[in-house]
Amino acid sequence: MNSMLTAEQLFAFSSQAAFYGWIILILLPRRFKLVFYIPQYLIPAGLGLLYAALILKYFFIEPGGFNSISSVRTLFAHDHLLLAGWIHYLAFDLFIGSWIARQSDAIGISRLIQAPILLATFMFGPLGLILFLSMRATQYLPKESIDV
Known about the structure:
By secondary structure, the protein is an all-alpha fold. It has helices spanning 7-27, 33-58, 69-75, 79-106, 111-124, 126-139, 143-146. It has seven helices and no strands.
């Protein structure tokens, strides 16, 4: 019996873990530090370990690389390396989402305002980060610095 998980199974597992992290981050109260620790550190670290295992196992034996779009396409033609790329997004987006939530809480941004920014980060990574940074820069600067 083959005990190795398929790329499809690992995809489902990692996507579900990240999804639960986002649910915790967006919906649950953050006053419980141990609960906030899950999306902030535990899930990204677990995804990072899975990413590292996939990269170490497949990156050096498969064709492709990062020196051109064609090389990246060749690299990602292998399911396990495509999965590693997906997990990279999942881990980093969740970690950045946790950072956004922590920063937002620290400067008093309402959870109702945070939710769409976190959803944008969940779905479109850098777009959510840009929304947060733009909102923070325009809403939370000292009044004298925005007078024209």
